[in-house]
Amino acid sequence: MSPSSVSARVAQTVLGLSVMLGALVPGVWAQADVQGQWGAVTTWPILPIHVTLMPTGKVLAWGHDATNNTTLGTIWDPSTNSFQTTSFSNADLFCAGHGLLADGRVFVAGGHNMADYMGLTNATVFDPTTLAWSSAPAMSFARWYPTVTALPDGRILVSSGAINCNGCNATVPEIYDPTTNSWTQLTNASLSLPIYPHIFVLPDGRVLNTGSYELPIPTRALNISTQTWATIDPTVLDAGSAVMYLPGKILKTGTSASSASPFKNSAATAYVLDMTQGSPAWRTINSMAFARTYHNLTSLMRRKCGHQLRKPSPPWRPCRSRACTTPPRCFCPTAGCWWEEAENTAPAASISGMPKSTRLLTCSRARVRPSLRRRAH
């Protein structure tokens, strides 16, 4: 089943989206200061598939409007637990890639052109100060499920994304320069990458590709100035999510999620890569307690650990029962071990770190428990 088909089907059955607040209730868990604790459930006005924490402390979220091919979103203020409707009528930004510009504006690349794997050339910007949407110049290639990466010089790299069919991915990366409001194609860096590739900026300025949402691939680094790729580790190790938990150090876990059969079972495997070493190569570490696909790895404050919210266990194909979820786990890089967090009974689809605290906002396609607060270390 394709990703947006799953979204549409589940969206039709959901009356509202529940979101957790950060309020703590004493005594619910005996070890809340160790495992974290979930707050009370509230209802969101939309199904937030895309979620971005803005520098203002507010959260921008939007979903999928299959009927009108537009974008209906909301702005959540966690300090007041209030919502403000926001909409963008020029395009459906479902299945886009997004990140933050250096000035705090939200940058969105691509989107959904009425059907799965049908991308958009749109580049869209949301201003957290004026709360207004605007269009930037269009990309040269339509993109559906691209990855947006903020570069150290303030420019934005856009990689991969389906153009108009399954497997018809944009091979040429494009760079958006907000100072000139213009695009540059990296034609010499052309490479076919699966949709939503995992991309990280290394301390030396190169860009590292460690895997993808959809398929396992070799690990390569891109020198943007020379537009050349170099293979870092040719060993193909699958993973559904990845995080840079320290500068130049990557953790990846679980299994990627192919949208087409044959489907594969989830895995509990975990690997680390240290790009600060002379000859970097993936190293197997202790596996997670549960096999996972469609999961998220998130770096917590002070880089103490990468936090993984639970996602469906094998087989990875989406389902709606509680048996399809597993407790979240926290990874400590210094000890190389995992420990269990407070359990949340609803699967999560989107996550975002909350400001000024060790809290996470998690948003689901069904019932959600989105705010996890941990003890400060």
Give me the secondary-structure topology.
Elements (H helix, E strand, L loop, with lengths): L2 H11 L3 E4 L11 H4 L1 E2 L2 E4 L5 E4 L5 E4 L8 E7 L4 E7 L8 E4 L5 E4 L13 E5 L4 E5 L10 E4 L5 E4 L14 E4 L4 E4 L11 E5 L5 E6 L6 E5 L4 E6 L7 E6 L2 E5 L16 E5 L8 E2 L11 E4 L6 E4 L19 E4 L4 E4 L9 E4 L5 E5 L7 E3 L4
Antiparallel strand pairs: 1-3, 2-30, 4-5, 5-6, 6-7, 8-9, 9-10, 10-11, 12-13, 13-14, 14-15, 16-17, 17-18, 18-19, 20-21, 21-22, 22-23, 24-25, 25-26, 26-27, 28-29, 29-30
Please give a structural write-up.
This protein has 377 residues and is mainly beta. The strands form 8 sheets. A 4-stranded antiparallel β-sheet has the order 2-30-29-28. A 4-stranded antiparallel β-sheet has the order 4-5-6-7, with no helix packed on it. It has helices spanning 3-13, 32-35, and strands spanning 17-20, 37-38, 41-44, 50-53, 59-62, 71-77, 82-88, 97-100, 106-109, 123-127, 132-136, 147-150, 156-159, 174-177, 182-185, 197-201, 207-212, 219-223, 228-233, 241-246, 249-253, 270-274, 283-284, 296-299, 306-309, 329-332, 337-340, 350-353, 359-363, 371-373. The model is unreliable at 1-30, 303-324 and 366-377 (pLDDT under 50).
In short:
With 377 residues, the chain is mainly beta. 4% of the residues lie in helices and 36% in strands.
Radius of gyration: 19 Å
Structural class, judged by helices and strands?
Answer: mainly beta
Strand count, sense and barrel status of the largest sheet are: 4 strands, antiparallel
* Spatial sequence of strands, sheet with the most strands: 2-30-29-28
Average pLDDT number = 80
The count of domains is: 3
- Work out the number of β strands: 30
What's the total helix number?
2
Low-confidence stretches: 1-30, 303-324, 366-377
Helix share bin: under 10%
The proportion of residues in beta strands is 35-45%
The gross shape turns out to be globular
* Distance between the ends: 42 Å
